[in-house]
Task: inverse folding
C-alpha cells in the first residue's frame, strides 16, 4: 500500500511539474494612448414646460480646455460658470445674474375645529 501511495505521489509531482501555467496566465498589454485632439461642442436647452433652461459650450486645442455653462436656478437667478483646464489644473469663475426671489412665507393656519388634543387612556393590570 505504501508503494502505491509513493507511486501516486511521484506521478502527481511529475504531472504538476509538466503543467505550463505561464501559457494560461493572462497577458498584460499596455493601453494605447493617443495624443489629445482639438475639439469643440455646444448645446442649448430651453423648455418652458419643464422649466429647463441651460447651455454649455466647450473647446480644446489639445492642451487647454476652455468653456462655459449657464443654468436657470429655481430662485430666478442665472448661474454662469466660465472655466479653464490646463497643466496647472482646473479654474472656474462663477457668477450669478438676477436677484433671488422666494415665495412669501405664509404660516399654516388650522381651524380650531380640525385640531383636537389626543385623549390617552391607560390600562394597567398588576
Result:
Amino acid at each position: 500500500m505504501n508503494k502505491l501511495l509513493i507511486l501516486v505521489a511521484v506521478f502527481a509531482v511529475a504531472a504538476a511539474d509538466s503543467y505550463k501555467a505561464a501559457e494560461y496566465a493572462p497577458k498584460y498589454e499596455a493601453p494605447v494612448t493617443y495624443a489629445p485632439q482639438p475639439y469643440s461642442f455646444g448645446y442649448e436647452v430651453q423648455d418652458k414646460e419643464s422649466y429647463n433652461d441651460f447651455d454649455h459650450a466647450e473647446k480644446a486645442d489639445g492642451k487647454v480646455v476652455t468653456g462655459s455653462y449657464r443654468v436657470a436656478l429655481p430662485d430666478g437667478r442665472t448661474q454662469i460658470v466660465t472655466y479653464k483646464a490646463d497643466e496647472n489644473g482646473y479654474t472656474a469663475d462663477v457668477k450669478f445674474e438676477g436677484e433671488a426671489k422666494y415665495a412669501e412665507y405664509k404660516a399654516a393656519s388650522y381651524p380650531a375645529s380640525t385640531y383636537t388634543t389626543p385623549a390617552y387612556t391607560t390600562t394597567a393590570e398588576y
Observations:
- The radius of gyration is 36 Å.
- Strands lie at 39-47, 52-60, 65-72, 78-86, 89-97.
